[in-house]
């Protein structure tokens, strides 16, 4: 190389990005087998669906138009082949059968498949198709559980509330005791006025409403916020086990064929959960009827088998693809906080929908993904770094248009993030500053960014003028052991100053003092802005607490120092000591040392004379 600077920066950048596992302390290799997270199986399924939908050579039956087929008297639909292949990829990525079925049914639905195929004799439902191809066992909606919000609540409260009301004859004005024989169970009721105009609409709507309310109150009883999405989904599923699933309602409800029993269940759930009437896809802006989605997922979930809580978690993150994800209680991966990589499934739906709207154009899709992520996060640079890491790791299982679009969206930003850090560290070290100082400077720059952009983002979200500044980020909010002394993220002692519409607050020890006093003793609840002060602190604390998602503030300083001749073990230890904020959880020093060793090897190799002969 012509100069030391070029050699060192190239070596450090290449080493830091050598493989996805070097970008993070999250356990990516475990995720390729589904241990505790299903984001990689979800990417694998999405790649499979995209490949078949946009296949243009030799398989004309594998097209999106045929995925919407709802009335065919044939033993196999094109959808069978598409779903079967996608399920296989999800399972190969580590999803067990019921979770694979749920992932694929979810993605197939948003790719254009109907929740039902309405041939009476061969009565297909999307959830059942996915379950059968996955080889999952049939069960009822009782196996469902909410996403984990500290705790999770199984479907039992919805069953209890719905069936208690059912036994009390409170869900519909129709009393089955008065019906003459041979009315119920056939076309005189089920597909006629009594059923489709009176009984079914109110039974579906009321049952879903009561079930949703029961799930939300149960979440509160468990001491967690009643985020509304999963209560609505579970209540709709329990309802659709009870109600005639293929009834098309009378003309007063809408055009024939458009409003069915599932829609009314969705409507009742939406009303009880106070969900917005419409949802909008990130990137495309496509508008969806929320009641339609919730009702259709009631149909899917009742047939899909018994997914585990991590199945619920990945679907929750897939729903983060909607712009309203924060309002509906969907996943965290839509922003504004950068969360652990096991949650990063929120770009899968937008990527699929953008591919559809762009006719399979990966470059146009990548540009749109990059644009919306730059607008949605407190630290969009690290948001795109995280997306790059998980998409690259997902390609260990399979490659496809979805991961390619996500990688292309994020690659330039990731490279810039690494390059500018390498330049800064190199210049600091050459000016006589220490590795610790360089790493600390990178962390402090990120802290300032989080304070500034977090204040702006949360001002917009709350409708209040907010200014925020951390005064303490330390370990041992309540513990005294040596492990949590080293990794502050496990017991964060957080203090900060915050101004809300001109009113100043100082929060001292958020996690161990202020939050318990507010929640358990009522301290500060008489002040309407105290909840906002706590909310803002919780958001911005977690933005730093999850820094292990992307650890380039540790690895790049270690790599630069090693490329300049420092022992890699020493360089890593110093970098981790300096990057105290990034070192929130364990694992960083080991990765930094691996990166530093590789950077040193690359740097030495770049200095060796060429063996080429002219």
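^ structure tokens above, recovered residues below v
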């Amino acid at each position: 190389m012509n100069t030391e600077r070029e050699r060192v920066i190239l070596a450090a950048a290449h080493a830091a990005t050598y493989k996805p596992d070097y970008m993070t302390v999250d356990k990516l290799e475990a995720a390729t087998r589904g241990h505790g997270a299903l984001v990689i199986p979800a990417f694998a399924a999405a790649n499979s669906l995209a490949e078949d939908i946009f296949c243009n050579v030799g398989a004309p039956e594998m097209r999106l138009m045929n995925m919407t087929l709802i009335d065919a008297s044939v033993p196999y639909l094109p959808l069978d082949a598409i779903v079967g292949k996608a399920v296989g990829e999800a399972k190969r990525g580590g999803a067990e059968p019921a979770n694979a079925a749920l992932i694929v049914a979810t993605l197939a639905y948003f790719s254009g498949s109907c929740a039902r195929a309405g041939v009476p004799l061969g009565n297909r439902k999307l959830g059942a198709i996915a379950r059968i191809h996955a080889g999952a066992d049939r069960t009822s909606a009782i196996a469902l559980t909410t996403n984990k919000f500290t705790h999770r609540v199984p479907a039992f409260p919805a069953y209890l509330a719905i069936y208690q009301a059912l036994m009390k004859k409170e869900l519909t004005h129709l009393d089955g005791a008065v019906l003459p024989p041979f009315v119920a169970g056939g076309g005189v009721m089920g597909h006629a006025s009594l059923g489709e105009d009176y009984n079914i609409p109110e039974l579906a709507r009321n049952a879903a409403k009561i079930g949703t309310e029961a799930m939300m109150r149960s979440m509160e009883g468990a001491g967690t916020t009643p985020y509304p999405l999963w209560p609505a989904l579970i209540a709709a599923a329990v309802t659709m086990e009870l109600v005639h699933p293929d009834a098309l309602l009378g003309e007063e409800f809408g055009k024939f064929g458009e409003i069915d029993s599932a829609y009314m269940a969705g409507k009742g759930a939406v009303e009880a959960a106070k969900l917005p009437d419409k949802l909008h896809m990130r990137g495309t802006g496509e508008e969806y009827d929320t009641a339609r989605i919730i009702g259709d997922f009631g149909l899917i979930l009742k047939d899909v088998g018994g997914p585990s809580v991590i199945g619920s978690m990945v679907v929750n993150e897939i729903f983060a693809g909607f712009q309203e994800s924060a309002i509906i209680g969907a996943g965290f991966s839509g922003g504004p906080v950068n969360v652990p990589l096991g949650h990063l499934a929120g770009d899968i739906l937008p990527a699929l929908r953008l591919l559809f709207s762009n006719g399979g154009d990966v470059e146009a899709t990548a540009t749109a993904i990059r644009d919306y992520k730059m607008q949605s996060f407190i630290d969009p640079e690290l948001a795109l770094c995280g997306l790059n890491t998980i998409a690259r790791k997902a390609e260990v299982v399979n490659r496809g248009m979805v991961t390619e679009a996500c990688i292309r969206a994020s690659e330039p930003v990731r490279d810039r993030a690494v390059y500018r850090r390498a330049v800064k560290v190199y210049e600091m070290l050459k000016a006589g500053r220490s590795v610790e100082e360089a790493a600390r400077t990178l962390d402090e720059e990120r802290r300032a960014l989080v304070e500034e952009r977090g204040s702006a983002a949360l001002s917009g979200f709350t409708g209040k003028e907010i200014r925020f500044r951390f005064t303490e980020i330390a370990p041992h909010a309540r513990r005294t052991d040596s492990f949590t002394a080293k990794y502050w993220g496990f017991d964060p002692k957080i203090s900060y100053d915050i101004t809300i519409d001109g009113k100043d607050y100082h929060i001292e020890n958020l996690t161990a003092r202020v939050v318990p006093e507010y929640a358990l003793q009522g301290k500060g609840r008489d002040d309407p802005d105290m909840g906002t002060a706590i909310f803002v602190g919780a958001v911005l604390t977690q933005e730093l607490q999850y820094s292990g998602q992307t650890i380039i503030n540790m690895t790049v300083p270690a790599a630069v120092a090693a490329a300049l001749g420092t022992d890699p073990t020493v360089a890593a230890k110093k970098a981790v000591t300096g990057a105290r904020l990034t070192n929130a959880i364990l694992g960083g020093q080991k990765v930094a040392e691996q990166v530093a060793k590789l950077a040193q090897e690359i740097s030495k190799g770049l200095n060796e004379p060429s063996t080429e002969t002219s």
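The radius of gyration is 27 Å.
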